[in-house]
């Protein structure tokens, strides 16, 4: 699923994306519209047990 969301970044560098279904996503980060970095992000199902 390609959502092409543009998410505002808070002053301290934090951001939030809500209402994602359990899946693996690619987070693409652009810095000054030049440099691009990609990260694979796994969103677990609501009933998954997470250990930190």
What descriptors fit this protein?
52 residues, mainly beta, two-stranded antiparallel ribbon, 0% helix, globular
What does this structure look like?
The protein has 52 residues and is an all-beta fold. The chain has a domain at 20-46. Helices cover 0% and strands 35% of the residues.
Shape: globular
What's the helical proportion of residues? under 10%
Cα-to-Cα separation, first versus last residue: 28 Å
The number of distinct helices, counting runs of at least 4 residues, comes to 0
How many β-strand stretches? 2
Oligomer class: single chain
Biggest sheet, spatial arrangement of strands: 1-2
Strand content: 25-35%
Structural class of the secondary elements?
mainly beta
| Radius of gyration (Å) | 13 Å
Mean pLDDT: 80
Order of helices and strands: EE
Biggest sheet layout: 2 strands, antiparallel
- Poorly predicted parts: none
């Amino acid at each position: 699923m390609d959502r092409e969301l543009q998410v505002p970044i808070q002053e301290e560098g934090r951001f939030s994306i809500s209402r994602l279904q359990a899946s693996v996503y690619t987070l693409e980060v652009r810095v000054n519209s030049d440099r691009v970095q990609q990260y694979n992000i796994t969103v677990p199902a609501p009933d998954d047990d997470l250990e930190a």
